[in-house]
Specification:
Layout lengths: L13 E2 L5 E2 L8 H15 L2 H15 L2 H15 L2 H12 L2 H7 L1 H6 L3 E2 L5 E2 L21 H12 L13 H6 L9 H25 L15 E5 L3 H6 L4 H4 L5 E5 H7 L7 H9 L3
Antiparallel strand pairs: 1-2, 3-4, 5-6
Length: 280
Amino acid sequence: MVLCDYGCGQEAKYPFDNGKWCCEKHWKLCPINRENYSKLMKEKWKNPKYKERLSKAMKEAQNRPEVKEKLSKRSKKLWENKEYRKSRVEEKIYTIRQIQEKYPFFSQKEEMRYNPDREIQVHCKYSGCKHSKEKGGWFTPTPEQFRARRDALDHDDGNDGCYFYCSEGCKQSCCLFCFRSDPNTLKEFEKYRKDADSRTNITLKKFYYKIRNIELQGKEYGYSLDHKYSVYDGFINNVDPEIIAHWKNLECIPELENSKKSKKSSITLEELLNQINEVT
């Protein structure tokens, strides 16, 4: 019996051009080589510089147009398979009830439903799309889209971005997709924010003592003024700045909490309007 020349002690079955025999079709698959390679990689991963270089190389590779196109085609091809899509949705996205329990803020911002195949569906963010909320449409997002939107909303370092788009065309047509890099949209937002801030200052003078925790505002107690329905959401949803500046939309909360909240809203527009319309 011929033994493997790579030292695993097993019977050799495959001859190589270099004259050696191996227990597997490729020398890297030999148990002893796999074990040595595993030890080598574990040692490498202990080095932060190695991880940093590898991460940088992977990001650079993923940003190449040809790699992006290849990954996109592969993802679309897989997603066209109904069985694959269903298994991925069930495995990675869970059920609507589980999502609502685990990610309450996401569930507050994004409306969801099941289609006849029990796939979770959402609205396309581009208002001109037939799948948008404005037109009563729905579409099935990929698990990657779902996770990106969820993380943007529920993680402390999220930026309230990564909106749902049913196609590349909708993404490019929606001004919110390029919000940070679009100077025209950014300029409009700055105008809206200045208007909302100006109206908020007027509200503070008129209804100072009606605002919750206003006496704690300042460095002494570490509280700051907050718009419960945020200025950012007001701009995105084309809400009248007068509503954003209403005293029922204002409260003072701890600065740290306000910082984490960032552009997020702690109340829905419907809840705010109901509060404003209440007879007091």
